[in-house]
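Morning, I've got a small favour to ask if you have a moment. I've been staring at a protein lately and its backbone has me curious. You're getting the sequence in one-letter code plus the fold written as tokens. I've dropped the whole record in just underneath, so have a look:
=====
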Amino acid sequence: MKMTRTGTLLLLAALAATTACPAENRFFFSAENVLSESTANTVTVLCDNDEVALGFSFSIRYNPVALEVTALTNEGTEAAGADYFSGRIDRENGSIGYGCVYDTGGIFDEKRLAAGTGQRIGIISFNSLLAEASEQTLQFQDIAFPPNIRVPVRNVLTDGDGRSIVPALEDGRVTIITAAPEITGITDGSGEAGQVFQVSGLHFGQPGLAVTVCGAEAGFSLRADGETIDVTAPGCEGDGCVAVVVTTARGSTEVSDGFCYVPPEPGEIFLRGDADSDLSVELTDAILVLNYLFLAGRAPACIDSADIDDNSAVDLSDAIYVLNYLFLGGRLPPAPFPGCGEDSSADELTCESYPDCP
């Protein structure tokens, strides 16, 4: 027949004379980092013991404003096979008291805590309640629980002779982090609108991820590593360096000069139809094109200006286009015409040299 919870705790608390604490015995906690306002976190109660233990008890104080303890279990620990593992969680006052007896029949031939280090003797499940970053302490203290307010739950190991061993007691730390995003670097952070650049940092893989550049929402994709964002620079009025802001549901981070817009290279300035580069459109321009095409004459110094019909090629139709314009009232050449300017249509024609336009 199993002992009652109160009876077992009293038994553990009243075990025979307490011996001095060898340095090899201690109770301590795993170090944990958890997110602010997060759930389903755990911290492990650990034990070093230099000899076999038939049972143990521990009591812990914590801050109930910062941590909400939801459960304490021995599942998956070195106490999982014990006959008795039970106790109390006082959520209002922030205290935990648990006891473990490996064999309530008193035999202990097979059920016992072998000597070892870093042995798990309990797993505390908790929620993080605070919105801001902080460091919370877990302390082993002898704590009394109603109705047995005169008999505190002690932090002890019971050795093979039934003696209570008081282990060294080390405070634990639970570090609460906000996990706000943090930019650590920007690569390829200059160019024109449409340039893809990389933002490196921490805590990007959170809900609500968004990136703005020059105050405008930017297209992006988060890489599998969760630490790199490929960002496409949106359009921006003007040139110069502008802010890059990464935002998640947990906050935002900014680099004020994160992306620098570079003005596009100016195109060549020329007058369309001026194949001989004399700053006018005349019969000589048509003749130069014909000689270039059919008599191996000199090439126009600005091939783009000889593309008079702006079809991205220089051929017979360009010479005819000029002649029709000059003598038959044909259509005006496309821009840049009748004054010098940049070619507004993209092509692969070059303009190696052209005189300065007035």
